[in-house]
Amino acid sequence: MHDAVLKKILKMLEVEDYSSENHKRLKRVVLISPDFFPRKISEISVTIKDVAEKLVEHNIDTHIIAYDPLKYEASDEINGIKVHYVSTPINAYSPLTWSAVFSVDICRKVADIFHNEGDIDLIHSHDWSTFPAGINLNTALKKPLLVNLYSLEVQRSHGIDNLYTRSVKRLEKQAVHISEKVHTTKQSVKHDLLKYYDVSSDKITYINPLDYNWQVKVISDYKKVYEKYVNEVF
User: Fold this and answer.
1) Residue 67: enclosing H or E segment and its boundaries?
2) Per-residue DSSP letters for 190-233?
3) Radius of gyration over alpha carbons of the chain, in Å?
């Protein structure tokens, strides 16, 4: 009864419905990526495109933040997906430094979305290079973070141990532990996450892009994570 009256008043005032029932519905998702079209076709960019298209099918407002210095500050709408291209002001020698600088522009663009279009319900950060941004946004917006790992530094470095590899490993581990869910497209990554990063198996979702309708599994995780967040807040 009270919710019905509140909704009627809010409709008359033309303001957003802030009832708990309305907040239980996932409305806006931000995907963060170092790769997207047209700059690069990769496993990451194709995975994100497929997930974003499925989100749009579910009537979820979908934004992709992607690196592209040639389209810097441009925004496209592709099949209902809102794509925002960002860059870095410097060419960093170290990928770790590049990631840190890149995160500043990602956070700025997400802040624009937040202020211009409304609240953001969930953030999905793809690849370790976007994790500084994902971690910062999770802290600032207090909204759920998911991370996608396509490989691990322990796999890429092949036993090399120095300040750089240790820093990337720490970043990966921090993101894994802060996030609500960890997605990976490779069983070997799941195996090494369990072996090296002290993470529960229940937290990891293995996604096989060759499976039929695999995107549904991703969106199911989104909804479960967001429902958990809403129940804790409200």
Assistant:
1) strand 61-67
2) HHHHHHHS---GGGEEE--TTSTTTHHHHHHHHHHHHHHHHHHH
3) 18
Q: 64 vs 83, 115, 142, 159, 216, CA distance in Å?
A: 5, 16, 19, 34, 18
For the chain, what are the domain ranges?
25-226
Q: Give the angle subtended at the CA of 114 by the CAs of 113 and 119, to the nearest 5°.
A: 125
The model's pLDDT over 87-106, given as tens digits with 9 standing for 90+, comes to 988 877 899 999 999 999 99
> Within 10 Å of residue 208's Cβ, how many Cβ atoms?
11
Residues in Cβ contact with 172 at an 8 Å cutoff, skipping those fewer than 6 apart: 128, 131, 149, 152, 153, 197
CA distance 219 to 149: 17
161-208: per-residue pLDDT in tens? 999 999 999 999 999 999 999 999 999 999 999 999 999 999 999 999
Residue type, 215: Q
- Kindly report the number of other CB atoms within 10 A of residue 79's CB atom: 10
Cα distance between residue 174 and residue 132, in whole Å:
10
Cis bond before residue 38 (omega within 30° of 0):
yes
CA 130 to chain centre: 9
Buried b (16+ CB within 10 A) or exposed e, 104-118: ebbbebbeebbeeee
User: What pTM was estimated for this model as a whole?
Assistant: 0.89
Ramachandran category for residue 62: left, alpha or beta (phi over 0 → left; psi -120 to 50 → alpha): beta
CATH topology for the 25-226 domain: Rossmann fold (3.40.50)
**Helix 95-117 and helix 131-141: axis angle, to 10°?**
40
